[in-house]
Amino acid sequence: MLNPGLTPEQKNICFLKGTEPPFSGKYYDFHEDGVYVCVNCGTPLFASDTKFDSGTGWPSFADVVAQGNVKKSIDMSLGVERTEVTCGTCGAHLGHVFADGPVPTGLRYCINSLALDFKKVE
Ligand SMILES: [Zn+2]
């Protein structure tokens, strides 16, 4: 389910599990009201009201729009256990989720800007 409209940079993140450099993406310092969707298939993933400034240089969210819209799996690629986050619809790699986020969820979804598209709420 590869969207032919993706740029090489977007394909590298979504299907080769790349990571964009911190503070490089278009959404880490972005505060409009709306919904972040999968750049590959358009599935709604994260809402702007769960976005917070983590200081990491990547867009960070405390929760997902709906359970099932993202999938979590164990990633041992760096020799430590991390939880990878992928699109529940198309399987595109989005980023990782960590257990050091704000209350009430305590979660920090650390997501690549390149894996996201933004739909503004009018
Ligand atoms: Zn998707």
Provide tags for this entry.
mainly beta; three-stranded antiparallel sheet; 9 strands; single chain; globular; 122 residues; binds zinc ion; Metal Binding Protein, Guanine Nucleotide Exchange Factor, Chain A; six-stranded antiparallel sheet
What is the compact description of this entry?
With 122 residues, this protein is mostly beta strands.
Can you characterise this structure?
With 122 residues, this protein is mostly beta strands. It has a single domain, classed as Beta Complex (Metal Binding Protein, Guanine Nucleotide Exchange Factor, Chain A). It is built from one helix and nine strands. The strands form two sheets. Strands 3-4-8-7-6-5 form a six-stranded antiparallel sheet. The mean pLDDT is 97. The site of zinc ion (ZN) has 8 residues, from loops.
Please render the helix and strand layout as text.
Elements: H1 8-16, E1 34-38, E2 44-47, E3 51-52, E4 60-61, E5 70-75, E6 82-87, E7 93-98, E8 108-111, E9 116-120
Antiparallel strand pairs: 1-2, 1-9, 3-4, 4-8, 5-6, 6-7, 7-8
The protein binds zinc ion.
Element-level helix/strand string: HEEEEEEEEE
The CATH top-level class label:
Mainly Beta
Number of strands: 9
In CATH terms, what is the architecture? Beta Complex
The fold-level CATH name is: Metal Binding Protein, Guanine Nucleotide Exchange Factor, Chain A
Mean pLDDT across residues: 97
Alpha-beta content class: mainly beta
Q: How much beta, percentage-wise?
A: 25-35%
| Subunit organisation of the chains | single chain
What does the largest sheet look like? Answer: 6 strands, antiparallel
**End-to-end distance:** 29 Å
What's the gyration radius in Å? 13 Å
